[in-house]
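Input (Beta-lactamase-related domain-containing protein):
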Amino acid sequence: MRIIFMVFVCIAVLLLASSAHAQMLFNEDFQDGNADGWQSAGKGDIRLTTYADNVSMRLTRSASALIGLRIEGPSQVRISATFAAMNLEKNDFCIAEASADSGTNWTEILRLEDGADDGLTLHKGAAILATKVKGGPPLLIRLRVSGNNKDDTCWADNISIDAIAEPASRAQLSAAFLTGTDDLLLPLPMHVYATPDNAHPPTVKIKGRLSFHVPAKTAQMKVLRDRFGFTDNPVKGLGTPPDFDIGFVQVGERIIPTKRGLIRTDNEAWDIMIEPGRIWREDGDMGFNRAAIPFTLQERNANCTHNGVLSFLVKPDGQTSRAAYQIVSETCIYFQYDMWGTGNITYSPGAIKNADQLSLAFSQEQQNKLPTRPISALATDHPGLDASAFGSPADVSPEAMTTFGVLIDGVHYRGGCETRYGRYPFCENLIIPSYSLAKSIFAGLGMMRLQKLYPEAETALIETYVPECARQGWKNVSFGNALDMTTGRYTSTKSEADENAAVQDGFFIVSTHQKKINRACSLYPQNSKPGTKWVYHTTDHYILGTAMQGFLRQRMGAEADIYRDLLVDPIWKKLNLSPVSYKTRRTRDALNQPYVGWGLSFLPDDLAKITQFIALDHGQINGTDTIDTHALRAALQMDAADPGLFAPGKDFRYNNGFWAWDAGSVLKQNHPVWVAFMSGFGGISVVLLPNNIVYYYVSDNNEYAWAKAVIAANAYRPFPKGPSQ
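Output:
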């Protein structure tokens, strides 16, 4: 056997921007009679052989040959190779493959198997591989036989690497456009705002303030749905993003805003949330670095959420181009639009308070995310689970789906993130609204935390802590009754009739606490004894939140806050949720009263962690109860003595802020099978399956359908028999 020593061949390449042709970087045809640089391994023989004046490398049995090539210059290369073979049997192969990450992952160039082994014909294969522009590991090429007999033979030849030339500059959002004055006529494919595969590391280290403003003349808006007639008499700012002026710091290639979560603005239509973006360099950007930042507009005083992204150029000295932006997706059933245009953006380098702490907190946030896999991996990782049942287009219209996911065995499988112009480039930073998920997450878990601290809270009376309700004759309505929506005060038991009356009354529109609480306490008359009749009311949870605030302040002081002190500090932060989850919608006045029944925002990882805390960890953190776990068990239909009232028919129950559905009929059982879930306005469902699988989706076409997921989950991992069955 010929001994072949491995060396790294250095290839420095200068690609001319004007060249449209690939340039050859490496070619090995063995015609010189040597195989310098190739290293042998495995069982079998490796040698150069000649047939009809052609020299090739012969490999037998399970031998392999490897070469490492140091390539600097191109961001993509095309690798090709040829093989002839003889005596291959079933499960025998000739394989040529390449790796750009020191052998962690291999890309197959060519595979030859039984049936293509006449010993004469050369078969050709090729693959395109992304490579580090500078400073990365060597490119590895490996030729190998996967056989078990000494006559299993492969002949390798004509191994070549060609650089794929890059264009001088991008075609869309080019440096010429961003530094020019042309209008952005239409929204662009979302990938234009993403970091390309051939990006270079940034030369700018962002630390300072970014200010953004969109002049009305450069803003464009196309309304796709307007059920409430917002555009009939538009408020100021409806067609433009709000201005912002926020500090940023940089961690690697990520640029981090100093303020995350809901930011109130002076815009009469929209508040804003800004998430971590990215910065990089591209060829053809005239010495600038390029940045992209995801942002979200949320309807003022409401929860409708519209996700966007902006991009601009910046130099180390602070010089910037203008910014391009677009918003082409949302979670909002009644107002949908595309918004796009250009705006003025300035960067002012300077000191940022607590910059090191902000950078460290972001790094820890990234490290503490749940393991995440694409939804396409669900079937591979869990054979036997019908993955098509989750996010099924038969259940939820694809154009209405914001995102969806499955949490199983500690892994978060994610799907969705599509917009009307392609996949959202910051899927991990896609902000999703809670709507009425807050009735479970804020009102439900908040009360459970309050009961853990003060067991008397469940039976405390609303009239003791809410004088506006006392004046309206509320008597003997407990905190628990308000959480269960069994106050005894209602006008109609018809589904959604009272809730629609609250919309017509203006409860959701008024922005101060006094106006909201006056409406909430006076809207419905008493018609039954508290605790005996369920009627859906968001107002009940606003009243409950007001009472909880008064109760907590009597015990913890005048500055106590039910969201911060019951959920954010003791639970959210210990679960390593993102700063997006730390804020909630509040009244616009000095009282700053949380909405409680709606108005939260999350990243997908936040929602997955909260469901894990509820359904899998049963309210414990590091083995310690953080909430009243008896109340949680009842909410999840795990306490036969406290299942809650039917709501509104025999197939649904409501208890401690959580819904439950009897899936017995769809599972063809002769007994109830209660599945707890959370539900949000417009088409949001979080299903807490009894077999420790969680399925959620966020959509906006009023579609609430997940029976297929229940059937699939039960078929894969049968539900245990519940206590109420």
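The chain has 14 helices and 37 strands.
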